[in-house]
Amino acid sequence: MRWVGRCGECQAWGTVAEADAPAAGLTKARTVATPARSIAEVDAQPAASWATGVDELDRVLGGGLVGGAVVLLAGEPGVGKSTLLLDVASRAAVHGRTVLYITGEESAAQVRLRAERIGALRPRLLLAAETDLATVLGHVESCAPDLLVLDSVQTVVSDAIEGSAGGVAQVREVAASLIRVAKARGMATVLVGHVTKDGAIAGPRALEHLVDVVCQFEGERHSRLRLLRAVKNRYGATDEVGCFDLSDTGIVGLADPSGLFLSRHDEPVSGTAVTVTLEGRRPVVAEVQALTAGSNQPNPRRATSGLDSSRVAMVLAVLLRRAELNIGGADVYAATVGGVRLSEPAADLAVALAVASSLRDRPLRRGLVVVGEVGLAGEVRRAGGVGRRLAEAARLGFTHAMVPRGTDDAAPDGMVVLEVGDVATAVRAALA
After folding, report:
1. Which residue among 97, 150, 181, 268 is buried most deeply as judged by most CB within 10 Å?
2. HSE (CB half, 13 Å, CA atoms) of 431?
3. Rounded CA gap, 245 and 80, in Å?
4. CA gap 58, 255 in Å, rounded
């Protein structure tokens, strides 16, 4: 401590007064405006969800949007995020809710043209093209919307934070400000997020922890099928998947997408096998096709589409060693039908039988569906949800099924089920 007679700011004499420093580690208690009360007395009505009108989206969200909830929708460019949210905003406006759509990537005229194309022109759907956070909050203050859609969070900047748009500090500040406003107003908010080259959500990982729901919108660029998955959901389960069909006139939900992933043949064709995959809790019937051809190259080609290349390579090695199929000198091409991506191990047996069928040039039995994971020792392992898988296959007209040995699930009425313990037995039974 030393004597100071003159202020260093205003240069006035005798204006500096001594003050006691606050004690370290002590925080002054603040008066609580709303006292704590019993949890049974808390009103749960504000957390009730309301349907968006898009059934597949409501399935993933757990019933619909919740007032005050913040949803982060991420996906690759061109996958259909803006089209889906514009349709959701239009349906909410039809039901009397005020919707504010903020676009930071496109002009208002571009969004208007898309809305006209999909039939989303509604009086209660308000549109603004802004990239400044303060201006966005001003629109929220003046419009008092029930639903806010921001496309996208990486394009908005705050003057209070240094850095360019899309930076870690900017994205965190913009998201935190919108979350505070959404919670205070009870306003449902949907934020559109970019993804990186690896498919992860761009920006800080803390953004995923701040929001209530994180959804991934997936789809192949050359396919009309789109899948919506919930990575995080505070209001519902994360094992539901929504299916959509993207066309020139908009995007529509697919309540029964299984027919999209099957080919139509007048006669049985070799190199094809049908399996049932679980997309969340939804069983989807899909077809695997394989083609083998002789090769003069020292390293035969292995090409896959819609399948995990590493798992296909493992299945080929098991067929070569455990089932004694001579595929070492053949090119192998494996693909799925309809652009669906099969990543779960339960599709291994279908890949193995499709390759064996193509190599022997003998088609599988008509009406046969196969489910099972192939192990390195050649065993066929059990898969989960076999009962639901077979029920879906029976609904589509399949009469025979090949499943792993020891499967406890009951088979549907009228379906003949064959249990196999290893891949060699499965190949002999399927090609008999």
Report:
1. 150
2. 23
3. 10
4. 12
Residue whose token pair is 């192990």: 375
Q: Which CATH architecture has domain 47-255?
A: 3-Layer(aba) Sandwich (3.40)
| Separation between Cα atoms, residue 219 and residue 76, nearest integer Å | 9
302-305/241-247 β-pairing: unpaired
Q: Which of 8-22, 42-56, 158-172 has the lowest mean pLDDT?
A: 8-22
DSSP string, 198-215: TSPBSS-THHHHHSSEEE
pTM summary value: 0.78
pLDDT digits over 224-244, tens only? Answer: 888 898 999 998 888 888 989
Beta bridge partners of 226: 244
Q: Which of 70-84, 158-172, 223-237, 309-323 has the highest mean pLDDT?
A: 309-323
Instruction: Answer yes or no: is pLDDT of 71 > 90.
Output: yes
Closest residue by Cα to residue 87 from 74, 70, 99: 99
- Supply the CATH classification number for the domain 259-431: 3.30.230.10
Q: Where are the domains of the chain?
A: 47-255, 259-431
Per-position b or e across 71-102, b if 16+ CB within 10 A of its CB: bbbbbbeebbbbbbbbbbbbbbbeeebbbbbb
Contact 111, 83 (CB under 8 A): no
Q: What type of residue sits at position 428?
A: R
